[in-house]
Amino acid sequence: MVTILMRAINSLGIHVLDSSRPTDPLSHSSNSSSEPAMFIEDKAVDTLAYLSDGDARAGLNGLQLAVLARLSSRKMFCKKSGQSYSPSRVLITENDVKEGLQRSHILYDRAGEEHYNCISALHKSMRGSDQNASLYWLARMLEGGEDPLYVARRLVRFASEDIGLADPSALTQAVAAYQGCHFIGMPECE
């Protein structure tokens, strides 16, 4: 998980500060573009990886929320103190990560964006033939309160469109699972 986050952080142009060698982010060379120079503590990256429970989407969303939390806190500080706001240097700390994840780490949100993120992740896991990931996303959706009939309908769609003629019995099995969920109902059909 740390590797994925480090790759994302590097691709975004965020500099990781090593806690064993304390340096002032203001001493780094000035960036000639209008974009702010972004820094993150290595401890903040470790905390982000730990708190996102191996879920790369949650980790990347948490990183985004940490950056936004830091920028908004600096904006408010400048506004209160009467200073002009210019985010030339931004340091993301472990507390920023915790604050960002505190607002976002929800198991499942049936009515929100997480609903679509999870079903998309389930489809991608099945398309990639990753059984463990498929079971994880399926369990996460059902534990979060998703309607099993919705999941069964999506499995029927997946069997007909993505698998198709590669395995003709897949559609029959998916339709049988849908009918079983429909007749039995919750909680037995889980």
Automatic annotation (TrEMBL):
InterPro entries reported in the protein's UniProt record: AAA_assoc_2, AAA_ATPase_RarA/MGS1/WRNIP1, DNA_pol3_clamp-load_cplx_C, MgsA_C
Keywords: ATP-binding, Nucleotide-binding
Molecular-function GO terms, alphabetical: ATP binding; DNA binding; enzyme activator activity; single-stranded DNA helicase activity
GO cellular component: nucleus
Residue span(s) of domain AAA C-terminal: 38-127
Single Gene Ontology BP annotation: DNA-templated DNA replication
Pfam families reported in the protein's UniProt record: AAA_assoc_2 (PF16193), MgsA_C (PF12002)
Residues of the MgsA AAA+ ATPase C-terminal domain: 128-190
Matches recorded under SUPFAM superfamilies: post-AAA+ oligomerization domain-like
Tree of life domain: Eukaryota
Protein known as: MgsA AAA+ ATPase C-terminal domain-containing protein
Taxon lineage: Eukaryota, Metazoa, Chordata, Craniata, Vertebrata
